[in-house]
Amino acid sequence: MDYVDSKRKSNICGKILFAAGITTLCIIFLKQSPDFSTPSQFSRQQAGVTHVLVTGGAGYIGSHAALRLLKDSYRVTIVDNLSRGNLGAVKVLQELFPEPGRLQFIHADLGDAKAVNKIFAENAFDAVMHFAAVAYVGESTLDPLRYYHNITSNTLVVIKAMASHGVKTLIYSSTCATYGEPEKMPITEGTPQAPINPYGKAKKMSEDIILDFSKTSEMAVMILRYFNVIGSDPEGRLGEAPRPELREQGRISGACFDAALGVIPGLKIRGTDYNTADGTCVRDYIDVTDLVDAHVKALAHAKPSKVGIYNVGTGKGRSVKEFVEACKKATGVEIKVEYLSRRPGDYAEVYSDPSKIKLELNWTARYTDIQESLQIAWRWQKSHRNGYGSP
Ligand SMILES: NC(=O)c1ccc[n+]([C@@H]2O[C@H](COP(=O)([O-])OP(=O)(O)OC[C@H]3O[C@@H](n4cnc5c(N)ncnc54)[C@H](O)[C@@H]3O)[C@@H](O)[C@H]2O)c1
Ligand SMILES: *[C@@H]1O[C@H](CO)[C@@H](O)[C@H](O)[C@H]1NC(C)=O
Ligand SMILES: *[C@@H]1O[C@H](CO)[C@@H](O)[C@H](O)[C@H]1NC(C)=O
Ligand SMILES: *[C@@H]1O[C@H](CO)[C@@H](O)[C@H](O)[C@H]1NC(C)=O
Fold it and tell me: Catalytic positions, please?
């Protein structure tokens, strides 16, 4: 009897130990899988917390927007397929906001409707800021399908996912390129849209999809039409770091820094006989810090069943010559300048009338000194010669 009893006891002990062991293993296993430790907070609505999906958040403007949202206590999910953005920018944000439930990064392609739907099913978004796109006018004329796919078609995927998962607010990144070559300056939101390249057309088509859909839904929509974006985080945490192969396509500020760094021999000014004060083209340069401020204000003012369309610019045109002078002063480099004939497709003058956004969202550009904006961006460029790669 004694013998049997003790055998039984040890049997029970063994079973208990076995069960405890399995449970411990399960807990360890679950804790190590990322699906256990993070998504709970991202997948649940939480009172007082606004969860924003930032598409293209590894890119130049999207990363700056994510930083501002996180600073303002929003919960942020970045979706980006890193085709053009930088994982380094996401890492900077993760290091600044490591607390659970603040920031999550999901590597996915917005062209993949199934993947996008899964993301919307697993996360409780309150709003979407849709930045992800390809964004070079020159490239768009050479590879238009890439633009209609990654701008228009992907926007449709995002809106359909928002609709079927009840996400109620959209802030959309549009562009002054949707206006084409208006006859009258400054450009107001009422200026007719007649885009002249696939980039502008793809963005206009996205706007049209959004506008038509909004008539049949209660979605709150804000469409922001940016002018030329420059600058970077004044605290030097983020910068603009396009892929090296896109440098050729690049925008004027990138070219300015490349010239100052000696990556390219100098700057080429194309066209000195335009009908402007000094003969060079005139553009409206908006600092990225002001731009993301416009997004936060747009989000705060978004109303169900309403669409707000706003130009985001300074309202002041600067000539290319002025820009180059500011670039020389900001970098302290005597950049070589070459004067060439006009580039086809460039228009003389583009600048915004930003009075609507001031009146309705109480937003005004504050970083309006281009030399100062360039100086801030230059500091980051100088200390990140390989972008977000190894220094
Ligand atoms: N930079 C400007 O001067 C300017 C002016 C007007 C409008 N915009 C608009 O602002 C937005 C952001 O521009 P940016 O200058 O930050 O560009 P960017 O190239 O730095 O960022 C775009 C991001 O979107 C991501 N992306 C692209 N296709 C994707 C896809 N299929 N799936 C997932 N991610 C994808 C890229 O990886 C990249 O990180 C764009 O919509 C652009 O059209 C920019
Ligand atoms: C990003 O998405 C495009 C399709 O839009 C795809 O062709 C490309 O391979 C993707 N890149 C990465 C790194 O996932
Ligand atoms: C955009 O779309 C094309 C398909 O038209 C694809 O090949 C490409 O990889 C996509 N992504 C980018 C960033 O260009
Ligand atoms: C508008 O913005 C300014 C500057 O940020 C602020 O001082 C002012 O109180 C705002 N006005 C309203 C009506 O919100």
Answer: 199
